[in-house]
Task: structure prediction
Amino acid sequence: MSASTTKPNGKADIEGLFQQAAMRAAAYRTALPGQGIRPVASVEDIAKGFDLPTPETGAHGSDIIQQLADAAEPGLMAMASPRFFGWVIGGSHPVGVAADMMTSAWGQNSCMSYATPAAAYAEKTAAGWLLDLLDLPREASVGFVTGATMANFVCLAAARTRMYKKIGWDIDEQGFIGAPAIRALIGEDAHASVYSALQYLGFGRASATRVATDAQGRMIATALKAELAASDSPAIVICQAGQINTGAIDPFEDIVPICRKFGAHLHVDGAFGLWARACRDRAHLAVGIDGADSWATDGHKWLQLPYESGFAIVRDEAAHRAAMSICASYLINEDKPYNPKDYVPELSRRARGFPAWAVIRALGREGIDEMISRHCCLARQLANRLRREPGIAVLNAVNLNQLIVDFDIDGPDRARDVRAIVRRINERNHVLVETAEWRRRLILRVSITSGETRREDIQVLEREIVEAWRKSSHHPQQTSNTTPSPEPQHVTA
Result:
């Protein structure tokens, strides 16, 4: 095929190509509620569909889109399904997806307001809305990043800049060689992404002082106070809102005054739990969190933004800019305009503000409040139902959207047997759940995060968990041959 026929030749070709992609995407999304969750093709078969020789000549755009969709769709997990409970993953709100399509079509590098004021000011407006919804200091700066891992990285970079400035060291210019020590203190049950951020920033994974936590994974304030009192070195304290297994939120009413007393920078990893602040009946769980110095959260979890979306929020805008801003002779850096590049590591990046602006407009404060409240209510109801089944326990206090489901299984093969139960659930392909480790014990974890999840979806999940457990050789019915257990009672509220 000649080069002249491998690219769109005008308005009709572009419209046809974009319409073809949009129609295929819409067909996939509208089918989600009624289809299975797991990929239908094996890894080997999917690899064959993509692993082609390097193309020597081009191909027609419509053929490529058709081939791409045909090759990819059998290997996609239905993560946007209302019955996906495997990880803390949102459902990619349709308005956000549509806005993201336009973002790609517009092709904007959103680093400077001079180059693309629309991208910059959609982001600036969405940032203000986020601070309002989460009730965080309105003077804070917000960087739009790829997710909570990079949000933690950016916030901790700003914390590093700020704390070194306090002791007269310009870490951004001078680096670590010869620098005084700064400590990082982190809860025993922190998420792995925070350790990655410490690694990227040169602190190292093993250097952080681990602070004791309680049975739900919350940092113990008195333990933090003792650790801070043990050294005069400047400190960065890393807390969390939403422990990945329990959903627990650290006691910020106690922690904030301690950090202020010792002059420590308090950072919050709030990938999903920070959104409790946007829900009237859950906000009490995060009282005091606005007293922190920086906050990291995801957009593609509870806000239902399409990938990739996260927010790095920093009280000290000057420290934020100093840690991130990129300057070059060809970049127009005016003082007044809002330049997104000043708050993120990338100079070239997509315009993440457009889908954020669109989804917040679509849901509004009331819609976000209702969704988070519904998810948390469904989680509590599911926990209550599962606790009635002999041999099933829910180990955490279900205050948010996370459940730790345990089974009455002991012995050296316990982990294998728990995995077998989860595999039985997932092979039926009506829902998807996953395992995790909690207190050195393998458990089934449930995350209720998809925007479209409703009561009927939780009913199916309850049924699948209970039926898989009843077929286990460890179930009381199987071990004692007593009267069969009654059918699982479904959520009714």
User: Anything to note?
Assistant: The chain is about 40% helix and 10% strand. Residues 3-78 form one domain.
